[in-house]
């Protein structure tokens, strides 16, 4: 509705109406309802005019601002999604490349250890950047690099059998109680005598026990004295094994599974202590042994896995031979002691990663020399 007077479309609107100017010229300007320059007045739905000429312009500006904001928001969301897609594509590419590199390394290692004569130098170079999981590769490579297995594959079976038999004999001699060892020897002796005199009946012979073989003997040469001497060490080993990787059920818990593994590691550490009286057992050796025993126990080769205790002992001894001086307190301040080694480590760290060295030395106050 219009208010009954002549109204003109504004010039800016008239120019947008097709044929509007032509019709105005044809009429010669007479009888026209709209006069140039006069604006339309907007009639509100309630029949009353707004009375404010600027309201329409303000609403338009508000709507325009809202549209701009929505556009900016939409553009931002699209940009973010694009960036996320790019990052996702990038991480996927990295993952694919990592899988390819792992497969190539696995193939290289399998090829090297399948040779009749293993090239240890080349194998060490490949393994220096890490070993792929699965396939029992890590167990075999560790045994080779630690010198437990010879480079010649033809000698592997002989070496494994010999070392496993030696370990079994050491356990029998050093880990059994004197009474258990005496019983085994007595049974073997009786078996020999029985075979020699199988047709002879007579009274049982009583074995005499010497003073040194008596459990209450205090003599240093007594087998019982030597046995009880390691009781305290055995208790320390048991305490440390309870704290070894408590997050792994393989080591922790009271299941028969975990107890079997702790017992095997206990045998290894106690036997090492008895064979090395100058060093014995030092806290931390359990952490050195744990990865060896875990890898060998989880070997996919069942025969190797069943002999994990014997193989772990031999590799543990070889590994400790290079760092045994670090566990000897009398050598702490010598050129081969732990303090000298930590000093060299700090120098290497400073030369290769000074930022990390400064963080440890000054920021966190965790100097390598305090470890």
UniProtKB/TrEMBL annotation:
Superkingdom per UniProt: Eukaryota
Signal peptide boundaries: none
Location of the Rab-GAP TBC domain: 132-371
Disordered as annotated region, ranges: 18-64, 188-212
Biased composition (Acidic residues): 55-64
SUPFAM superfamilies membership: Ypt/Rab-GAP domain of gyp1p (SSF47923)
Pfam families registered for this protein in UniProt: RabGAP-TBC (PF00566)
Biased composition (Basic and acidic residues): 188-197
Protein known as: Ypt/Rab-GAP domain of gyp1p superfamily protein isoform 6
Species whose genome carries this gene: Theobroma cacao (Cacao)
Top-level taxonomy: Eukaryota, Viridiplantae, Streptophyta, Embryophyta, Tracheophyta
